[in-house]
Amino acid sequence: MLIQIRPPRASWPADFGRVKTALLPVLPSGAIVHHIGSTAVPGLAAKDIIDIQVTLARLTDLDATALTGAGFERASPTRDHQPPGMKLAAVDLAKQMFRAALPVANIHIRVHGRFNQRYPLLCRDYLRAHPLAAAAYGAIKQNLATRFPNDAEAYYDIKDPVFDLIMVGAEAWAAATGWTLPPGD
Questions:
Q1: Residue 56 CB neighbours (<10 A)
Q2: What is the pLDDT of residue 77?
Q3: Separation CA 142–CA 148 (nearest Å)
Q4: Measuring CA to CA, which of 52, 63, 96, 126 is 20 to 30 A from 37?
Q5: Angle subtended at Cα 113 by Cα 108 and Cα 114, rounded to the nearest 5 degrees
Q6: CB atoms within 10 A of CB 40
Q7: Burial 97-121 (b: 16+ CB within 10 A, else e)
Q8: What's the order of all strands across the beta sheet hosting 73-75?
Q9: Is 30 strand, coil or helix?
Q10: What confidence tens digit (pLDDT) does each residue in 112-166 have?
Q11: If you ran DSSP here, which 8-state letter would residue 60 be given?
Q12: d(CA 161, CA 157)
């Protein structure tokens, strides 16, 4: 997989909307859909892949056959990254993963109230509220993609801990502002 970081694209919100529209009919009642990741932060450079989080009450509520029947491909991983120094239970990092082809999208299915469900939403909102942090994060991703264009493992081995550093500021910001989980997008 070639890692390429692109300048921000005006089409990313509409791309999210197209995938969301295809997802909604095959999701269980009560599912919450969010646009997450770098393409959800205005002005942030990103891989040209839309990240979507579907929040469910339980992973067992998911009808994987319905998703694959609608053209979504089952993917891995089934666990999220654990930040250094944290000792989280496996259930706090569990997820299901699917991909869409056009537009290219990663669909992360997580459980409401779990660590990994809150993490991408808080980081997204923090970066939206802090454009200088978003720009610095974008520069780091661009530099990593230049250095490791064909080595996703090396790219993520550095990018994930950088994201964990951002989360330290995000947690302080959430406490200071009273941030709460947002409704779906």
A1: 19
A2: 80
A3: 10
A4: 63
A5: 60
A6: 25
A7: bbebeebebbbbbbbeebbbbbbbb
A8: 32-36, 50-56, 105-111, 96-100, 73-75
A9: coil
A10: 999 999 999 999 999 999 999 999 999 999 999 999 999 999 999 999 999 899 9
A11: G
A12: 7
Instruction: Write the pLDDT tens digit of every residue in 39-75.
Output: 999 999 999 999 999 999 999 999 999 999 999 999 9
Tell me the two tokens of residue 179.
């941030």
Q: Both tokens of residue 113? A: 């109230």
- CB neighbourhood size of 151 (10 A): 13
Report the DSSP beta bridge partners of residue 79.
94
Question: In whole angstroms, what is the distance from residue 106 CA to residue 99 CA?
Answer: 5
Closest to 92 measured CA to CA, from 65, 124, 59, 67: 59
Q: How far is CA 43 from the centre of its chain?
A: 16
Q: Which one, of 33, 50, 56, lies nearest residue 110 by Cα?
A: 56
Find tokens 């997820």 and name the residue: 95
